[in-house]
User: Which sequence fits this backbone?
């Protein structure tokens, strides 16, 4: 074991995947850690983007933006000087190694085994099948537990600790279909990937399993090469989902907590209502005009995930998504009546912060930034679900749209900066809590009641 | 060796799990197989189509694992039969199980 490697105040233990800075343990996501370890391992040279994508996401097609977000998260943790960008090519770990001995790392508890493989539950009533699957998985380096019927499997899954379930269909007590349904209906359990292993014939059962949430289907006798590939793919998907959630949680943790997050976490059944609410209208105005159409759409896709998350995390509701724009409403629920303006402003600030993270990476690669124009307006609206989507109508929606258009013009005039414009009602509700400035006459066509620009 | 065992399937199983482990697996099947047959016999006697299909399915599944092709075919016929299979079908399966087990032990011994 090589121990901690020191780079100034940064210490990295590649075997244990531990990272410390100024003596404090840092916990980047596992993907960010993969990126970091690869850069440290090859710190004498440039590591290309393709190499990073291939090594960190083996066998998967992954957008380059994902890599940029992870590098950005690492820079935020370690300082921007830690990772150098070679525009258009890749990255290089830029901290110099320290020559002095590393301070001894805290000892790992004796009962804590190093992380190896994953914990897989094999549920099959047939002993030969059970033994063979367990053996095959163990030879792949995984830890295996078994269950002889569906009920036992459900008890074990509920007890927790599994990364994957291999499930037979024909089982006594609770068969595979019923177990799948139970897992799928339980928000705590539905994230567990399930691979069906069965010798049932015909495509009907396969289709039913996929509908019920199974990740994959393997016919018995299970081909070992397919087993290995599909287990790896399922675990990879799980890891990607966990990593994405962890990254969003980490980004969110850096922002001030708001009461509306609790409301957003537990949405109640909604009925259409006429109420005072705040409308946020956003557009990314430069994308449509960019030369590289494919890159623009790729960036739009990456931005959407971040923007949706910002809306959701502040109790907002998406009510429209025209082209490169987005409209959301805040404070429309009875429980958050007065919170609308502040939550909408916080959402706008969170959107700008996340876009800035993406832009920092794009700028380093010589790509243009994604500029954002936002208008916020409050007033009486009619809002509620309509079929599968939500609608919001009323004068504030138009006003927010007008402000967003003005924000585009103001942003262009200010050398392409993000611009957020507030109407008088929103400004009155947030004044003193966030920094604003009245927009000067002449810089934009100011509507009646005045317009204020948010200073981020 | 003409013993109704698919040599490629059996070799792949040995490669997948290890030759020694396959010997253990055959002995497990030797323990479990008669219980599966007894469950099948009972289900057929009671006219329990679900029980009959499940027991025959288990035998078929294990037979496929070892490459015991004739045993698998006989079990599959009983599993997928839309009407209650006759006693001859069950008897053929009962006769084939020990033959298949012996053939598997021979192969495992010869190649282990």
Assistant:
């Amino acid at each position: 074991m090589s121990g901690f490697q020191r780079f100034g105040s940064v210490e990295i233990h590649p075997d244990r995947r531990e990272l410390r800075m100024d003596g404090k343990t840092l916990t980047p996501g596992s993907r960010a850690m993969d990126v970091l370890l690869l850069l440290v391992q090859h710190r004498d040279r440039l590591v290309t983007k393709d190499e990073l994508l291939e090594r960190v996401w083996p066998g998967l097609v992954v957008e380059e933006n994902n890599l940029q977000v992870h590098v950005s998260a690492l820079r935020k943790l370690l300082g921007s000087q830690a990772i150098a960008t070679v525009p258009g090519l890749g990255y290089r770990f830029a901290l110099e190694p320290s020559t002095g001995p590393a301070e001894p790392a805290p000892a790992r508890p004796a009962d804590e085994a190093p992380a190896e493989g994953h914990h897989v539950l094999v549920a099959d009533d047939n002993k030969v099948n059970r033994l063979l699957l367990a053996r095959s998985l163990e030879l792949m380096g995984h830890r295996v537990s078994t269950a002889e019927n569906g009920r036992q499997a459900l008890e074990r899954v509920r007890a927790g600790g599994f990364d994957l379930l291999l499930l037979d269909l024909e089982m006594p007590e609770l068969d595979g279909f019923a177990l799948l349904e139970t897992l799928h209906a339980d928000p705590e359990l539905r994230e567990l990937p399930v691979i069906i292993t069965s010798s049932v014939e015909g495509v009907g059962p396969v289709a039913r399993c996929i509908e019920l949430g199974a990740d994959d289907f393997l016919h018995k006798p299970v081909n070992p090469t397919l087993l290995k590939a599909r287990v790896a793919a399922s675990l990879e998907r799980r890891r990607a989902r966990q990593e994405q959630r962890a990254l969003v949680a980490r980004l969110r943790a850096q922002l001030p907590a708001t009461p509306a997050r609790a409301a957003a976490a537990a949405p109640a059944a909604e009925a259409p209502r006429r109420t005072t609410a705040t409308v946020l209208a956003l557009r990314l105005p430069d994308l449509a005009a960019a030369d590289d159409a494919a890159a623009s759409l790729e960036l739009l896709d990456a931005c959407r995930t971040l923007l949706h998350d910002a809306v959701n995390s502040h109790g907002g509701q998406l009510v429209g998504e025209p082209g490169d724009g987005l409209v959301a409403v805040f404070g429309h629920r009875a429980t958050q009546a007065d919170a609308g303006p502040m939550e909408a402003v916080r959402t706008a600030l969170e959107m700008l912060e996340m876009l800035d993270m993406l832009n920092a990476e794009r700028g380093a690669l010589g790509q243009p930034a994604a500029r954002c124009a936002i208008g916020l307006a409050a007033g009486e609206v009619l809002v509620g679900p309509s079929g599968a989507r939500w609608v919001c109508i009323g004068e504030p929606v138009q006003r927010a749209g007008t402000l967003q258009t003005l924000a585009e013009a103001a942003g262009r005039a200010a050398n392409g900066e993000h611009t957020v414009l507030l109407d008088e009602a929103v400004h009155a509700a947030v004044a003193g809590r966030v920094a604003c400035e009245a927009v000067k006459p002449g810089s934009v066509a100011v509507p009646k009641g005045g317009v204020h620009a948010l200073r981020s | 060796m003409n013993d109704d065992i698919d040599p490629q399937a059996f070799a792949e199983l040995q490669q997948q799990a290890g030759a020694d482990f396959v010997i253990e697996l055959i002995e497990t099947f030797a323990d479990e197989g008669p219980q599966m047959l007894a469950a099948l016999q009972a289900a057929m006697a009671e006219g329990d189509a679900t029980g009959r299909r499940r027991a025959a399915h288990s035998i078929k599944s294990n037979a496929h694992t070892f490459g015991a092709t004739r045993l698998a075919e006989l079990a599959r016929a009983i599993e997928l039969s839309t009407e209650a299979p006759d006693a001859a079908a069950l008897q053929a399966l009962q006769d084939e199980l020990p033959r298949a087990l012996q053939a598997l032990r021979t192969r495992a011994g010869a190649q282990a």
